[in-house]
Amino acid sequence: MRAFLALAEHLHFRDAAAALRMSQPALSGAVAALEETLDTQLVERTTRKVLLTPAGERVARRAELVLTELDRLVEEVHSARGSLVGPLRVGVIPTVAPYLLPVVLPRLSAEFPDLELSVHEEQTEAITAELLAGRLDVVLLALPVSAPGVTELALYEEDFALVAPDAHDLGSPDEPLPRSALNDLEVILLNEGHCLRDQALDVCREVGARAGAATYATSLATLVQLVSGGLGVTFVPETALPVETRRAPGLTVRRFAAPAPHRRIGLAYRSSSPRADEFETLAQSIRSAVAAADAHVRVQPA
Structure pTM? Predict the structure, then answer.
């Protein structure tokens, strides 16, 4: 049924299989099995795309409701078994996952040995859509979330530091950097779709600084390497600094004068989920792990 719904959404076997992270033959077999069970043709297969039959359109509408209720049933059963037991599908944005997961996963494994965790890394828009569709249980991302029907749990705040080539004259390294210093610099950014790009653009707009239009990157790692190569300066969250600056030579890191530009990281889940108490427990475990690992972040109260 899930395979058929993905096919109904994408109307293409390859795209539907990619969305479910399964092979095309497996997805095709699943759809054929559903057709056989219902004894009716649900899709019309052409050389270029897939069309839903009238019966397929009716089944797609009902299947979505059925699977939503099934997911709720599974969540309620898991909730009754105890805190953070069984499967938990977590979405994480790319500018958080490589830096937070190594800190958090060992603690979760030790505290909740019966937790069956699966992690999906993707940009904010994608994991929010997956959450609302019921394919993820909870997501870890920058707040606020611009989607209805979602509850947020703040975890921590972290400042952005400025990473620049050593050759740049940014004044005394012992003094906090004023935001106005950005006016004389070219700021390079992540590409569209990353919330960190939008946050960096907001800082640039506040002080009238320019953001480079010709140079951008798909990851923080690449972004810092571009800075190391002399192509500009960039913003890096505190939790990413130790990892990314260690990989690139010839860099200087400057922290901003208060109030420094920052972001808030948190959990978000469907407000209708019966696992709210579990997500509170998860949030508290993450806060504890972050507080023990990084003195530069500000853990948020429960």
Answer: 0.74
